[in-house]
């Protein structure tokens, strides 16, 4: 089960157990990066899987319930994977949780009552979200144009000029020839201007984490997340009642768009971009 979970993490959008649940071209390793052992989620930056299992069950402000590790993993399919939520206790769900739990072998249980996040980066994550919230609230069109410039300088060699991704490197926005989304939707953590910047500063450019300044990370994600991407509607991410199983959340309605994500920080997407191309 550990090996099966690892394979799903590596090939989420093509693995036989999960491909029908993924709506884009991402895999778990797109955000949970490989470490020196070449295993998914073992890199030390924000998003590491190492010691994550020690924090669960953990309270989630988003769902307003105590979440199991399987809950946390499965909910990612609706957001980062722009797909459907797997059913808890199915083979794929158990395998992914087993792999992440295996990475915490020997670690001390340290349940997190504040957020569903492992102890290695919990406080850093919270601190950086606050930091980038303050920075992004001050964003202007010049930050958008600077983000585009920085993206061209530091990001296109892996992610492409149009954010479409190159080879094994993940797409950041856009659609394929069949009009399907290539990347995460507006309900994903990466789509939030503060959370996306916190993750990018910690992990990017690849193997050069923490090399971007606060403003560079903020401007890059201002540019990336100002591009068109799929809206998020929680109800569409849940499978039909006959197939879904129990959804452990007190929040049953949630919608986001590029426009609403910017508005959440007091920003007008039209002014930031300098056009009216976002619906």
Structural write-up:
The chain is mainly α. 38% of the residues lie in helices and 4% in strands. The chain contains twelve helices and four strands. The radius of gyration is 18 Å and the shape is globular. The model has no long low-confidence stretch (mean pLDDT 96).
Task: Provide a short characterization of the protein structure.
Helices cover 38% and strands 4% of the residues.
SSE blueprint and pairings:
Blueprint: H1 2-10, E1 58-60, E2 65-67, H2 69-79, H3 91-102, H4 122-136, H5 141-154, H6 156-159, H7 193-203, H8 214-224, E3 232-233, H9 234-237, H10 241-244, E4 255-256, H11 258-263, H12 269-273
Helix pairs in contact: 1-3, 2-3, 4-7, 5-8, 7-8
Features:
279 residues, mainly alpha, two-stranded antiparallel ribbon, two-stranded antiparallel sheet, 4 strands, globular
Mean pLDDT reading: 96
How much strand?
under 5%
Q: Could you spell the SSE succession in H and E letters?
A: HEEHHHHHHHEHHEHH
Q: Give the N-to-C terminal Cα separation.
A: 44 Å
Strand order of the largest sheet: 1-2
What best-fitting shape do the alpha-carbon axes yield? Answer: globular
The Rg value, from CA coordinates, equals 18 Å
Tell me about the largest β-sheet: 2 strands, antiparallel
Characterize the quaternary organization of these chains.
Answer: single chain
Helix count from the secondary structure assignment: 12
Low-confidence stretches: none
Helicity level, as a percent range? 25-40%
- Secondary-structure-based class equals mainly alpha
Number of strands: 4
């Amino acid at each position: 089960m550990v090996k099966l979970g690892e394979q799903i993490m590596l090939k989420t959008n093509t693995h036989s157990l999960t491909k029908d649940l993924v709506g884009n071209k991402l895999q778990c390793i797109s955000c949970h990066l490989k470490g020196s052992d070449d295993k998914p989620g073992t890199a030390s930056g924000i998003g590491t899987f190492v010691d994550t299992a020690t924090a669960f069950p953990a309270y989630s402000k988003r769902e307003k319930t105590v979440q199991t590790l399987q809950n946390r993993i499965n909910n990612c399919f609706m957001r980062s994977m722009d797909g459907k939520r797997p059913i808890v206790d199915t083979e794929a769900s158990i395998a992914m949780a087993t792999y992440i739990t295996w990475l915490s072998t020997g670690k001390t249980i340290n349940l997190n009552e504040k957020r569903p996040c492992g102890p290695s980066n919990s406080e850093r994550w919270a601190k950086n979200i606050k930091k980038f919230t303050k920075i992004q609230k001050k964003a202007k069109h010049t930050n958008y144009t600077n983000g585009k410039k920085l993206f061209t300088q530091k990001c296109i060699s892996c992610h492409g000029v149009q954010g479409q991704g190159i080879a094994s490197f993940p797409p950041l926005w856009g659609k394929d020839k069949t009009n399907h989304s290539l990347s995460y939707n507006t309900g994903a953590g990466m789509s939030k201007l503060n959370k996306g910047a916190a993750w990018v500063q910690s992990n990017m450019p690849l193997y050069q984490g923490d090399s971007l300044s606060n403003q560079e990370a903020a401007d890059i994600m201002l540019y990336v997340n100002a591009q068109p991407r799929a809206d998020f509607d929680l109800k569409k991410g849940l499978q039909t009642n006959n197939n879904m199983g129990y959804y452990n959340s007190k929040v049953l309605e949630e919608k986001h768009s590029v426009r609403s994500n910017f508005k959440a920080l007091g920003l007008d997407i039209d002014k930031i971009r300098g056009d009216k191309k976002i619906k």
